[in-house]
Amino acid sequence: MASVSVPAERPGGLLRRPHATTGFWAWFTTVDHKKIGILYGITAFAFFLIGGTEALLIRVQLARPDQTFLDAAVYNELFTMHGITMVFLVVMPLSAAFFNYLLPLMIGARDVVFPRLNAFSYWAFLFAGLFIYSSWFLGGAPNGGWFGYAPNSVIDPTRGMTFYAIGLLIAGIASTVSAVNLAVTVLNMRAPGMTLFRMPVFVWMGLVVQLLLAFSLPVITIGLVELLFDRLFGTHFFDVSAGGSPVLWQHLFWLFGHPEVYILVLPAMGIVSEILPVFARKPLFGYQFVVFSGIAIGFIGFGVWAHHMFAVGLGPVANTAFAVSTMIIAIPTGVKIFNWLGTLWNGDIRFTTPMLFSIGFIAMFVIGGLSGVMHAVVPSDYQQTDTYFIVAHFHYVLFGGAIFGLFGGMYYWWPKVFGRMLSETAGKLNFWLMLIGFNMTFGPMHILGLQGMPRRIQSYPESLGLAFWNMVSTIGSFVIAISVLVFLVNAVASFRKPKQMEADPWDARTLEWATSSPPPEYNFEEIPVVHSRDDLWHRKYAETEGGRVVPVAAGGSGEGTYPDGAGHAAQDGAGHAGGHAIHMPSPSYFPVIAAAGLPVLGYGLLFGVPAVAVGLVITLAGFFGWALEPSAE
Amino acid sequence: MATLEHSAAAPVTDHAATSTGLPHLKLAMWLFLASDCLLFGALISTYVLYRGASTVGPYPADVFDIPYTSVSSFVLLASSLTMVLALAAIQRGDVGRSRVWLLATALLGMTFLGGQVYEFTSFVREGLTLKTNVFGTSFYVLTGFHGTHVAVGVLMLLTVFTLSFAGKINQDSSMTVELVGLYWHFVDIVWIVIFTVVYLIPTGSPAGG
Amino acid sequence: MAETRVDDPGPRSAPAPHAGRHPGPKEYIRIAIILGAITAAEVAVYYIEGAREFLIPILFFFSFVKFALVVLWFMHLRFDSRTYARFFVMGLAGAVTLFLIVLLTFQVFSS
Q1: Distance, in angstroms, between A216 CA and closest chain C CA?
Q2: Could you tell me whether strands A549-551 and A576-577 are parallel, antiparallel, or unpaired per DSSP bridges?
Q3: Interface contact flag, A221 B39, Cβ < 8 Å
Q4: CB C87 within 8 A of CB C81
Q5: What's the number of domains chain A is made of?
Q6: How high is the pLDDT of residue A545?
Q7: Which residues of chain A does C12 touch, with a Cβ-Cβ cutoff of 8 Å?
Q8: Interface contact flag, C55 B81, Cβ < 8 Å
Q9: A543 — pLDDT class (breaks 50, 70, 90)
Q10: pLDDT value at position B113?
């Protein structure tokens, strides 16, 4: 790997600049976007296993009527934590993993704009997740649903919802600064020649998602602060007897919560938009339409939030307005679907695991989208809301959609990140088991919902006739569990293989495949100069008059396609660009330190003011040290 | 052999080449300020929602001292002037003058904060706390958030002021002052909105007119 | 930058020095005086009994002008790249629109 320059002795310096490039300390103090991406990925996957276990426990409890395997109190904690985990600790950070690792590579940059801020975001996220989970041992986990509706979330006497508010505030800080970081990276760090409309769709979706985060997170920040104040300091934000309104909470939550679901799914849509063209050997059909639809979804996504509140009593005018805006958002979504289908049409298709997951995404997301449009019809929603019909809808779009897309991404980029391929055989088994298990689990929930099974109930009586499909659903959930195990085995086994992977094993189209697998610390020997969309593809192939794709004479796959062979000297240590050493930003302790103060502050709010002061001091010390330290030495 | 900074995160200068031609930190600051609009939007609309909703007093008309608060407003506006003069000075290369204006801005900011603290304590003495009613709840949290933003700004100003003695602030690094300035002016414009919406626009008390 | 460039790279460029006019201290002081005057007017209007009916639109107008003066001149948006303004307006317009809708659903503006 490239050497990082040895730190100079800093007179009067408190902490010597870390300089490890391998081992624990390297990971602990890294500011390299690739390492940070891997950290996000591993942490998110660990939370995926935990959140999945929570789901299995729920399904065991609901397998049969009138079960007492879990009492109501624990049940409430489980479905709440399952939701919080999957939304905030799995899908968001898994998407962040991909954005962190790939955005700089795809735009031909060496790192993000603010590498230490990037590290800070990761550590703050990790500490937020650990903080929330510590609640299990410190008085009870959050139990008011992931959406924490007031006044229940205010008056619940256990500590859980306080952990919820503080934990999500910390996670929100992590995501907000990351949003600014990645947005400025995409806008400012593109390689020469890479105009906005030559960027990969995944990068575009990245930009839209960062803007969604930047504009939606502040709203829930205030909601959570108001919740926290009501719980800790006796304020009256949601206190009806004092003139407050619990509906205010719902507005604040969903003003964030709805853009949040697009934050959850747009990255996966971006991934699918990258995978389909590669394995259909065709450019993405209607690139501009896909991009503009993504932007439209982001924008309109801010205008539909009250469709989560149809049954609250906002009145017919508000309900109608939001029903219409919700139906409108189906249009750009549909445009994307048709463009993906257009990409597949007449393509030279390779049914690799990433391709299977992407096709699975399209099919499952369409189903989820259809049930979504059904909810948009207000009178229909009166029947569906708070039933399992809704649970079916959002799992189809978030699991069948986002998770499938993210799994496809893992299979696709695994060779780039880890220098080994995941097994295709195991991958296909993983996919089919997951597809079958997923549909077995959530398909029946449409029926259960329409038969009247409410959400968030710990058990149901025999007489309601819900037993059969609940059992099917539970069995399905264990099939999902097996499919995840297959993935884990696949993943672990891949590390037994030797780390020797070509730069471009899939014969792909975007710049990350122009450098070695894995890339050197500095990403590219020379920053590439971009002449078109899918620049790598056009360096490798040209089109004949008859429209046939033929390899370019001087090209080959991957290495050798850019001047001075991006990826050539990757193994020889120090990177050299045209005879000059490449200086990368140096590792740092301060991001971890600054992040570490936040949970301390949180525990202080829960258990005693002194910790608040300690936490503040730690965080401020971290920020000051960071501000005064040069980014590279 | 000359070593060249190819680092993606070279020490911040106005001269780093970027795809938009705009400096990283300035773009980031504007994006951050844009997102901060939503933060204060949520707080202000909470206040507006609960205007007139308190079931018990004290009510705004009982505690507000408009002349007093308008002095606070003048102080904060003046601090925006001193801030922009500090920036103009450093862009001319006049570190000494800039230092004076930076200190002035910080002092005016601290005066504002002192005024807030005095105002809050006198309201508390008159019986208005966070817990008294929704007016107290929404008022203190809104102005408290604003005050915290001011305090962070003062901290940044004093830091930059101190760094200027170590030679870290000069014409080439005027961006630092510019960034602090942008943040500071934002805090000022939020106050412009708060002063009007909270203080000047009257809230009738439910019992009275 | 010493990267190898095959042709004109296009969008990448060093930031331009402040394009266009650059206000000087005198202009800033003038604006500050205007801001002070408007604030005084706001307070005066508050006390004038006859203005009660138009109080709210007048106050909104005044604060809008102050807001604009600080943003456009002190924050230099008038003289800087459109990009900054676009992002700021996104946030500002977003906040105003979304929260106006929220308040409307609570019928805050009806009597």
Answers
A1: 10
A2: unpaired
A3: yes
A4: no
A5: 3
A6: 77
A7: 190-192
A8: no
A9: confident
A10: 98
* SS3 of A216-244: HHHHHHHHHHHHHHHHHHCCCCCCHHHCC
In angstroms, the CA A161 to CA A145 distance is 9
**Per-residue tokens: B173:** 């690094």
Q: Residue for token digits 């390492």?
A: A35
Q: What angle do CA A134, A136, A140 make, to 5 degrees?
A: 120
Residue A249 has a pLDDT of: 98
The predicted complex's ipTM stands at: 0.93
C27 and C73 belong to one structural domain: yes
- What are the chain B neighbours of A109 within 8 Å (beta carbons)? 8
Spatial separation of the C-alpha atoms in residues A156 and A592, rounded to whole Å: 33
A287-300 helix and A330-344 helix, angle to the nearest 10 degrees:
160
Q: What is the pLDDT of residues C9-31, one digit of tens each?
A: 344 555 544 445 678 999 999 99
**Do A489 and A447 fall within a single domain?**
yes
* Residue A597 backbone dihedrals phi, psi, to 5 degrees: -65, -25
Helix (H, G, I), strand (E, B) or coil at A315: coil
Residue A325 pLDDT more than 60? yes
Token representation of residue A380: 């229909």
Tell whether C60 and C40 lie within a shared domain. yes
Cβ atoms A188, A113 nearer than 8 A: yes
Mean pLDDT of chain C: 83
Q: How many helices (H) and strands (E) does chain C have?
A: 3, 0
For residue A146, give the H/E element and its range. Answer: none
Same-domain pairing of C43 and C66: yes
Verify that C39 and C55 share a domain, yes or no: yes
Q: What is the tally of structural domains in chain C?
A: 2
Contact B22 A221 (CB under 8 A): no
* A21 dihedral zone (left: phi>0; alpha: psi -120 to 50; beta): alpha
Residues C85 and C39 in one domain: no
Q: Please check whether residue C91 touches A, CB under 8 A.
A: yes
Contact in structure between A40 and A129 (CB atoms under 8 Å): no
Kindly state the tokens that stand for B62. Answer: 């009982």
Q: Check whether residue C59 and residue C107 sit in a common domain.
A: no
Asked whether residue C9 is domain-assigned, the answer is no
Q: Do residues A301 and A358 share a domain? A: yes
Please state the rounded mean pLDDT for residues A228-257.
97
Q: Do A243 and B134 touch (CB under 8 A)?
A: yes
pTM (2 decimals)?
Answer: 0.93
**Same domain (yes/no): A493, A606:** no
Residues of chain A in contact with residue C104, where contact means CB-CB under 8 angstroms, are 318
What does the DSSP assignment read for A484-531? HHHHHHHHHHHTTS-S-B-S-TT---SGGGGS-BSPPTTS-SS-----
pLDDT in tens, A24-81: 889 999 999 999 999 999 999 999 999 999 999 999 999 999 999 999 999 999 999 9
* CATH number of the structural domain spanning residue A389: 1.20.210.10
Pull the structure tokens for residue A560: 């050798």
Structure tokens at B135: 């007016």
Can you give the pLDDT at residue A5? 43
- Partners of residue C40 in chain B, C-beta under 8 Å: 70
Residue of C nearest to A252 (CA): C102
Same domain, C75 and C96: no
Q: Which domain holds residue C76?
A: 23-80
Check residue A18 and give left, alpha or beta (phi > 0: left; psi -120 to 50: alpha): beta
Assess whether C73 and C48 both reside in one domain. Answer: yes
Residue C91, min C-alpha distance to chain B (Å): 4
Q: Which of A501, A534, A549 marks a domain boundary?
A: A501
Which domains are delineated in chain B?
A: 24-49+69-200 (1.20.120.80)
Q: What is the pLDDT of residue A14?
A: 52
Subunits adjacent to chain C (3 or more Cβ pairs under 8 Å): A, B
pLDDT band at A210 (very low <50, low <70, confident <90, very high): very high
Q: What is the pLDDT of residue C52?
A: 73
User: DSSP character for A423?
Assistant: P
